[in-house]
Design goal:
0% of the residues lie in helices and 60% in strands. The protein has 409 residues and is mostly beta strands. A hairpin with a 2-residue loop joins strand 6 and strand 7.
Length: 409
């Protein structure tokens, strides 16, 4: 078993960013980076650098800035706040016919992060394309019909959705609380087409119907068809060519104090390189969020996954659960705690893993002010991975972080 203990004390002087807030010399702070691949970066709030309007169209160009939050408190994974992972870019918009047709184009570049120590060689002015992203999108609406097209390509070093490309066309119809939506598209990795690394292509088609009425639970039914195949197959990488069909049903209910979502899905996968050998996957997921008080939020989640491989008769069970607590006593004092559990076991005993983890955060704004911030934050994390099939792969990690911000400019 591998054990590691990490404790880090960070003392920040005047001019260093505060916890969960991003500052740069020119752009003002922005919200955290979104996870969705087809959505633009969070706008920094700066005025448009260019804006034009005509009788039938309007154009604008905005600067974008986003801070990527740290996902680990381990010392080896952290970088100084002055070199924190962030993304800068430009977002251009043009709309015609009073917004009935909108076109967007965005370029972004990543800075900082885990590669902050890899300084560029003096005199090397080559552009690193692996840290860049480009996104194009067109959306339109006419009556109850919406439609659109998106394209995105991000290099291997980009911070949000790295080494991924996608394009998608979709259409949507809404009326009387019913929503019909269909989409077709393609996803791929290894965007640089490096022959020494495998490249996986996925083509998909998806159709869904949803029902949402006031005071009713929201109901949805989705069918998707996916095809996976490899293009580059370096030595030691097995080729892949599979097709899958997915059927998912979901029910959600929301109120002022709580919301609940229950989903169940069935996936049938065929391996075309093994005479169509099939595997069946059933998944159930229950997630909820409760707010017994305006200052206290509880978010539990329970899931179960069952996979049966017809060719070998192998059955793999994977239960999972997580719990998140967030308490905000005031604007100055917050407490957050998270815990998770997941396991995966097969009936042939070749797979038997268990993952347990947790994290706690205590943040105290000692002297809040519109011009001065004194913040103390304590974070602690624990994770343990147990592999009963291969005990030598067990791992246990304990980490801690103390963050002190004297001033925030």
């Amino acid at each position: 078993m591998t054990r590691s203990l990490t404790i880090m004390l960070v003392w920040l002087a005047v001019g260093i960013p505060a916890l969960s807030v991003a500052y740069e010399e020119s752009p003002p702070p922005s919200t955290q980076l979104g996870a969705a691949l087809t959505t633009p970066l969070q706008l920094s709030g700066t005025p448009s650098t260019f804006q034009s309007s005509g009788f039938l169209y309007q154009t604008s160009v905005l600067s974008t800035y986003a801070l990527v939050p740290a996902t680990s408190t381990r010392l080896r994974d952290l970088s100084p706040d002055t070199e924190s992972p962030r993304v800068k870019g430009l977002l251009a918009k043009m709309n015609w016919l009073n917004g009935k047709v909108v076109a967007e184009s965005e370029v972004g570049k990543s800075y900082g992060g885990a590669t902050w120590l890899n300084n560029r060689i003096a005199g090397d002015n080559r552009v690193d394309l692996s840290t860049q992203m480009i996104r194009l999108g067109i959306t339109g609406r006419t009556g109850v019909i919406n439609y659109g097209f998106t394209y995105r390509n991000a290099g291997q070093g980009f911070l949000n959705g790295p080494d991924q490309g996608s394009r998608e066309m979709w259409g949507e119809w809404k009326g009387n609380g019913i929503t019909l939506r269909s989409a077709v598209g393609q996803l791929w990795n290894n965007v640089a087409e490096d022959p020494t690394r495998p490249r996986l292509n996925q083509t998909f088609g998806r159709m869904s119907v949803g029902l949402a009425r006031p005071s009713w639970p929201e109901l949805s039914l989705t069918y998707a068809r996916n095809s996976f195949s490899t293009m580059f197959e370096p030595l030691g990488i097995a080729p892949q060519h599979t097709q899958s069909h997915t059927l998912e049903g979901a029910m959600a209910y929301q109120s002022l104090r709580w919301n609940v979502r229950l989903s169940s899905s069935y996936v049938l996968t065929s391996d075309l390189l093994r005479a169509g050998a099939e595997s069946n996957v059933r998944m159930q997921l229950l997630s909820a969020s409760f707010r017994p008080l305006n200052t206290f939020t509880i978010s539990p989640m329970v899931g179960y996954r069952e996979e049966i491989q017809d060719a070998s008769g192998t059955r793999i069970d994977g239960p999972s659960a997580s719990l998140s607590l967030h308490y905000r006593q005031s604007r100055q004092f917050t407490i957050s705690a998270m815990a998770n559990y997941a396991s995966s076991r097969s009936n042939d005993r070749l797979i038997d893993t268990e993952n347990v983890g947790g994290k706690g955060i205590l943040a105290w704004d000692v002297q809040p002010s519109s011009k001065w911030t004194t913040l103390i934050a304590i974070e602690a994390g624990y994770s343990r991975v147990s592999n009963r099939a291969t005990p030598s792969a067990d791992m246990e990690d304990i980490s801690g972080l103390v963050r002190v911000v004297l001033a925030d400019l």
